[in-house]
Every structure is written in C-alpha cells, then in structure tokens.
Amino acid sequence: xxxxxxxxxxxxxxxxxxxxxxxxxxxxxxxxELPVASHFGDRLCVxxxxxxxxxxxxxxxxxxxxxxEIREHPEMNDSEDAGAAIDAxxxxxxxxxxxxxxxxxxxxxxxxxxxxxxxxGVEAYYALVSEAESLGVEVIGDVKRGxxxxxxxxxxxAHLQNPIMTGLEDIITPDAITVNGFAGADGIVPFADTANAxxxxxxxxxxxxxxxxxxxxxxxxxxxxxxxxxLAEVVGEIAKQSExxxxxGYSNVGMVVGGTSPEATTALREKYPEMWILVPGYGxxxxxxxxxxxxxxxxxxxxxxxxSRSIIYAYDKPEYQEKFGGDWEKxxxxxxxxxxxxxxxxxGL
Amino acid sequence: xxxxxxxxxxxxxxxxxxxxxxxxxxxxxxxxELPVASHFGDRLCVxxxxxxxxxxxxxxxxxxxxxxEIREHPEMNDSEDAGAAIDAxxxxxxxxxxxxxxxxxxxxxxxxxxxxxxxxGVEAYYALVSEAESLGVEVIGDVKRGxxxxxxxxxxxAHLQNPIMTGLEDIITPDAITVNGFAGADGIVPFADTANAxxxxxxxxxxxxxxxxxxxxxxxxxxxxxxxxxLAEVVGEIAKQSExxxxxGYSNVGMVVGGTSPEATTALREKYPEMWILVPGYGxxxxxxxxxxxxxxxxxxxxxxxxSRSIIYAYDKPEYQEKFGGDWEKxxxxxxxxxxxxxxxxxGL
Lengths: 349, 349
Prior knowledge:
The structure is a homodimer. By secondary structure, chain A is an alpha/beta fold.
C-alpha cells in the first residue's frame, strides 16, 4: 500500500504543477456546494437554452490518441503502466471538461474506457463525474447497464444514487445514465425509480446505429411494428407517468436513438414528445446537424446530440492543426464552437 | 491516503486472524501458478464430469443478509461505512468460495452487488475472481455488458482479458462473462473474439425469466418467430464458427436462458447443441431440477444451472438451522450437497 500512497501523492503533485489540481478538487468538491436537485428534464431545458445548443461532448479517452504533451509527460509516458495510463487519461478528460463545461449543456462519460483499467479506472470515472458536476454541467454516465429485479436496483444505486456511505460520501454519481432495456419494464423501472428519487434521469437504449443492430432491433411483427418501436412503447409508458414529468413537460426517462435513420427518428419524436432523446453519432459517425434537428420538438428542446471523437480529438484534424498548430486545447474549443454554431443554426436556438 | 493504507493493513490483519488470508492471497496469487489456458467449452465438460454436477453457485452478497458472525465483527459491523461493508461482503464471499470451490464446476459473481460500492467494490470483485481462479473453479462474471464497436471491445478487455499492465498484472479476469446482445452481432463478436484469444467464454443473454421480459423477448414476427429466437440465431451463427469450437464440440459462446419456460428450453437445446446454456433460476426463482435437465444434451453436458440465494443464504432456512444451528458454513455446504444430489439424480451424472 505504500506504493499506492506514493503514486497518489505523486499524482497530486503533478496535477498541482500543471494548474489543474485534479486530485485536489476531487478530494474537496462536495455535494453541499451544488444547487439543490431539481427535475432532470427541467434542468436539461434550462441548460440547452442557456448554452443555446443541444451538444453533448462525449469522453471516450484512448491513451494512444492523447495529446503528445500528456503522453510524453515523464509521469505519464507509459501506456503499459496502469497508474501512468490512468493519470494520463484522467488528466486529459479533466482538462477537456474544464474547456467545454461552459459551452455545452451536458457531457457524456463512457464507462468502458475507464473499466479497461479495472477498479483504478472506475475510481477515475467517478472522480471525473464528480468534477464535471462541480463545474455545473449535466453529466451522463454511458454505462448501458441492464438486468432485472434486485440486480437492476443495485446497478441503479451504483450509478445514480449519490452515496451516503462513510468513505464515499464526497462522490457524486451522474445526473443520468444509459440503460439497456432488453428485459422490458422490470429492467427499466428500478433505474427510473432511483432516478426519480435522486432528481436524475435515464436514457434507455432503443435503437443503435451499427449495421447489425437492425437484425434484432428492426425485427418486425405481423403488423410491421419493429422491435425497437415496441421497446420505445415500453419506455414511453414508463416515461409518461406523471411522477416522472417535470414542469416543462419532459420526463426524466428518455431514449438513446442512433442519429443515422431519419424515418425512425421522426416517428419516435412525434410519438413521444415528452422524452429527451440522446442521439449518438453526430460528427465522426456520420449524422449531420439536419439529421439531429429531427429529434427536436417544436419548442427546440428534446434532443441531446452527442459528439465524442470529432470533438475530443479535434487536434488530429488538419483544419484545426493548420489554425492552432500544436495547441490541442484551442483545437477542442474551436471544434465545440463550430459544432455549436452548426447545431444552433440548424435548430434556431 | 494514510487512512486508506491503514484500512488495508487493518483488513489484512483481520483476514489473517480469521485464517482466511484473503488480502494476502490476493496479493500473492498469480496466473503463473494456474494451468495453461485451454478451450473454455472443454474446461466446462471436464469440470462438470469431475464434480458430477452442473451447479453454479452465484455470489449475490447483500450486507444485511450476511451471517451474524461477520455483520457483528467489530471491524465490519457498520453497513453505512463503505470500508467495513466491503470487507464484510468480501470476507463472506471468500469463505463461500472456499466452501464450494471443490464441489461445483463454476461460480458466478454478480458485478452489481460490488459496483454498489463503486470502485472499492470493483476492486473486491476482481480480488474474488482472482481468488476463485486460484481455487481451480471456473468463474463467470455476471456483468451483462453490451455495446457496439470499440466500446464493446473495451468492455471485453476489462472483463475477459487478463491484464498485462504494470500494477494490475496479478489480476485474473473471469473465465467467462454474461453479455447483452441487444445490438446484434456487432455487439457480440468483440466479446467472443476476446474470449477466443484468452481461452475464455461468453454467455449471451437470450431469454430472461422475469414477467415483463416477454413483452420484448417474445415479440414475434409474421411467422411466429420470437425475438429471443432471432437473437439465439445470431448468437448461434457466431457460436458455431470452427475457431470457437473445442475438442468436445462445444463452443466458447453460450447463452443465458431463464429456467422457467420448458418449451423455450427444449427448442433452444435441440437447435443449438454446441452451446453451453447458463440457466439462472434454480432454487429461489422456482426452476426445478427437472426444468434444468431440459438444458442438457444427450452427453449430459451443455447446461450450467445457477443457484444463488438458496445456497449462499442457506443458513436462513429452518431446515438447515434445525440441523446445524448457527454454523452458517455447514448450512451452505449442505445446501450445495443437496442441490448437487438432486441435479445428479435428475441428469444421471
């Protein structure tokens, strides 16, 4: 354990040195300083209006794609050392959070990229969630958890309930998580109920955009109803319950729907006006701003448009490299500004 | 970090005191001592034949149900202290592992029960997986992960790849995990490929046994084919690829199928003889030994029958309390022996 303690002390020193104070903030940030919990659907409306964009920046950090400044730092220049790699990934994500938190309504943190480093990565995940919360941006934990009964309840506690246990009480869990609804209502309600109790939300994965998803999700009954539409019905029944609905008419139960299928989009949007829809695939995955507009209601709300790689690795793009040289942070800021401008114009926010 | 270091030292001392040496074993066990990886499907055949039972003991530890001996121990008698609660849960699971490892082919560890304690619980989960591996029993990580593309690949690394990174190299990941196949082949193949590379396996969740699962999973097309049957087809296509098949004819890609639906069971068993089927629901959830026999092939292989609560909380049952009084360990051992006897007779192992 001495090694562990040394590593953390060393980490803390590094972060202080580069003016980020990541570990320090992690240890001192507290829920008590945050605004009182309100309805998640209402908070999203306020955030989208305030930032004038539905853009969600997704954090999918891969060590090998991190900026040279971080990868070459003497304390973090070894992708095969778990401590160094996690420090690098966490440092990068923390700096991205500070760059984008004022510009977008929400960030999405992809759990898989942290679970890769086992529990040490999971600790970094929760630290980043807590840090993002302290910056006042809504945080979506992309965890895609799904199970039934008591197990679903425990997953919902792990990922949506702010812990009260001694030793973990300074940790804040995400404002919302993604949920896999394969088991139907029994697998969704435990998450939705925890979200309700905590002033948080869930996004049930209804339609993916990968090529093979259609085999299962477009599987159709005799009337041509597709499986994802049936799942949307199940989610919609839960979402429209009055106790889950905020003052602005939005539920704290939403959907994840891939952005590359225009017909699916339009139909789901019209049928479930009360649901926020989280749309992956803007940017690198090929969905355009026009595709994303289809997810908005007439009030311009209801859509959250996620972009991950095209924002956080903007410094790999020639257009930004030409403009900002090796300043990777300026590249990211510009990529957010460009995406915001495009979405703002398309939606009229 | 001093507090953290102290807690671990204290924990270590406690475990040594009670002759379990959990933390000590965790730090000294190593992959190098384990047999060379073989095919997961073959290993299951050998294990079921050797133990003469398909029983899988599921670890779903809930603090409030732990034996009084553990809950009342001065170092672990506070469910609201994360450190004490995790120590209690890990101690209990470790002792159960030592009781059952010689009697069953596999154990299943349910990730949700550990994720509840955030990264500290995840550390305990991996420690228990490593400990179980060192006891020579097959370990199934019940994680129900599911996503697409690169994200699925990362989840498969986190949960199936034995880490080579410095700092995590003594950790062994499970022999197999449960996977959510909602996204179709794109969401299954990354897990199956990692399993193949590591001599491990996956069980894709095809049919749940909860009441609402049917709304989605029994959703039928014009020919009466149900969604879970379509998903089984997708899984079956992947499973039967020759590179995934062992010497005994079994694939390292299997299914999770609830034990309470006899027709579904029989049809799936006949159609996919090459797949191991993990059957939850024996015992507390109502599936009988006769229900479970339907999951076996003619060679008596192919079924793994999971029982969690009715084994690990056997000391709550009057029948065992009468016989063994407060000796909770004897109750668990007897419950395993009873379940094994019942399954052995039903299957003829």
